[in-house]
Write the structure tokens for this entry.
Amino acid sequence: MSDDLSELLARLQSMTPEERVRLLALTTGDAVAGDKVGADKGVGDKVIEPQGTVNVGDDGRINGVAVGVNLGTIVYGRAPEEDERRRLVWYLDRLAAKLYRLPLRGLDEKLDQGSGVSLPQVYVMLATGSFVEVARGQTKDLRRYYQNGTLDEPLKPEYDPNLALPTQAIVRVETLNVVRRESRNLPLALSRSTLVTEAVQQHARLILLGEPGGGKSTFLRHLAWALARRGLDQPSGDTTLFGWEDQRRMLPIIVPLRALAGRLAAEGVRDTTVYAALRDEIQSYNIARVDDMLNAALHRGAVLLLFDGLDEVPLDAIPGVSADRRTTVRAVKAFTQTHRRAAALITCRVRAFDEPLRDELDWPVETIAPFTLGQIRHFIPAWYNELAQCGQIQPAQAERMRQLLLDLIIARPKLRAMADNPLLLTMMALVLYNKGELPRDRPQLYERILELLLGQWDKLRDGQSLAESIGVPDWGSERMRPLLDQLSFQAHAGATSADGRGRLARRDVRDALEHFLIQAGMRDDQAAAASVRCLDYFNHRSGLLVPDGAQDSYTFAHLTLQEHCAGRYIVSGPDAVELVLRYRADDRWREPILLGLGVVQQTNPALLDRVLTDLIDPDEAGPPKSVERRQRDLIFAAEIGVDRDWGYLRTQRVNVDRLQRDLKRGLVELLADRNQPLPVAERVRAGFLLGDLGDPRVPVTSDEWRRELAKTQAGDMTGYFCQVDAGAYTIGSADNDPDAEDNEQPQHTVTFDAPFWIARLPIANAQWRAWVQQGGGKQSPYAADTDLNRPNQPVVGIQWHGCNDFCAWLSAQLGVTVRMPTEQEWEAAARGGDARRYPWGDAWQDDCAATAEDRETRGARYTVPVGCYPAGATPCGALDMVGNIWEWTASVWQSYPGAAKPFTEDQYRILRGGSWGDTRKRVRCGARVRDDPGNVNNNLGFRVVVAPRSH
């Protein structure tokens, strides 16, 4: 090695990545500006960035410039050798080229041909369910975010989530809790949603959850594409990752977890198996000798492992074919523990990521938020503009379709509800592009997509349609539907491909075709020949059933289509109810069942009646159900009713009244079961569903309130009010309580000469709205917040004075004294006759209250429906006395008798119980806080008592 070269290498090792790429460019005669390579041609002061893919030469250079040096230096911890750099560049280039196109095969054949639709051009940033604070201050300080400078006006367009992207859209306005304030000028915090890119960058380990079609896999593809381009030193507007450091480069590797599960079943659960999957993924791009690159990236933390589709791994192992879901998770976790510096991300559907998996991994979890109208407004023009760029439509057509689709989504609530799902929104755009109209229902939308695909079979290709190819020219594509449904069902039942699509052996498809054609009236020899011709048609001209030449098999072009047709098969035969019940317990079959029932609803609504009856009624024919199975069936039945629209079912002469009556009774029993066989997320889901049906635990009308009061007066303590007996009760926290504050002491005793009755549950939104609708009160400031405004969630954002006014109105309705409890009454009801620390006893117990302790697992951002934690009941039977919300009391803020430093501050009122955001330290029976009676917040509510005048 020459002295000059030795000196150059020494200098390279001491330089920053930017300095290295500049120096390397100078040694090869190329100009570099910043960290942009000289391939970006300058025109005056404007830099023209390369778009789409780039041409990488055999020497790993772009327009003569050596690229990949920055990432190579990060991977190897030194300037990469020329061979190392080239192999890295080749991998990144081929990965970027593969990911650049949006995969549309099976969704639209025309758009999948040629250069295809560019993923970067139509991609819209995704947000999560968590928040980033962007501003805080007094109301006067935040006027710049609102139109006309007043908080009573809407947000400015650049901050309105109906118009803006998540980088700027303000989605939460929260009143801050501070010790002292003027109620006319409250301190506020404005927040936007955390971007998915931010979440990935912030966490070395992350679980990313989303609904079917919610954008999980597309996000992984876009992130990997952008990182690959950055690794090639080709930054551009396309590669902008909001929330990701501009200079942060990583080596992306996407591994379908279904494929990994297959390897684990064949090769054993070892680190070497996971490593081999990563190595083979890089080698699949025809890259040789990748071990040094992979080992260096793992060792230095320069790799981002993208494990996609945990929900597509079977719940139970398939011997020799696939490991089960939990085993696969353990293998990934063990590998990341061995390679602690490597970043890792796992995607999964929301419902498939249960508590055992959560406990197994113990990684941070983020959930992809539904599309806002702002995101929808950005996707639609980007989509149709890209079609215009592809030459599929004229610019004027693109503008017309853009406006039509947006107008339809805004005008039709059902379409708006579907459009918050990126896949469904894409399908809407496709159907409108091809059909000129849109259905309003998800299954019907999928039906239109299938019609488009099957219609391709009716078109002439090389002089022949599919029907003519197989020798039945009078057939239309509809004649093939039963076979398509059967194959979809078989594929879904035995899914073995990487992303959950079933791989169908060529032999099995041929036999199914042959049998189908014989049933249609063909002779055996004709059917055998026709099935071969049909397979040839699939191989060369069909975009629905995709050949896998390496495996001599076929898969469906998209998992959604497989699920849809599998659902059609389930509901199309005489054993439909039996099949629904057989597969209902596997979360992989939930979506096919819902889609199938949606397809059959118009022609056979009686089938939905039978399915719902069997799910709801425990005495229906069949083996006895376990308590856990029965409760899950009730939840599924309620979800089917919502998905299929109870109102529509009623017009179809389905016995909705009977079904809802039995369903409500069952859900009430579920929420009252103190054994809590279901995890909290499922109980919360049951609570929300019960609220939408009309929660019978929550009296709303005057007659319902009177009935509950009559129960109390008759000595029936099973209703809305719980009796707290007369007698002596301990108030305050013990001296040895490590979490107690001075204002909770000294502990003392109070005596009630007469019993009183406290509401079993906090006042809910439905109860508050009934008062508002009668002109008695003001609407909660959170009435439009879908995370806080469901009927049986506790009402929040209520001032103390408003609580008193509600009580006065209710007292007039019932003819008795209804009021807020004093803090002594509240604590007596929470503790019972002993000095217990929590309503359920002295020791903390998980799953007894909605607090910060279970915020990641309960399936709700803030509050949960009232009464979802039956194991946390007080001795008198009251629920949610701690957690969920802070509860206003009638008492002013003052010290206890005998306090070392007495005080009275009658401008404040006392709150009790702690909220959804508090830890176990704040949800004790003895914990107390003060607040301005004029304050509102998303964790402040109340409950009532029926009692004599305040004790």
Notes: Confidence is low (pLDDT under 50) at residues 1-52, 178-184. The longest helix spans residues 82-100. Residues 130-194 form one domain.
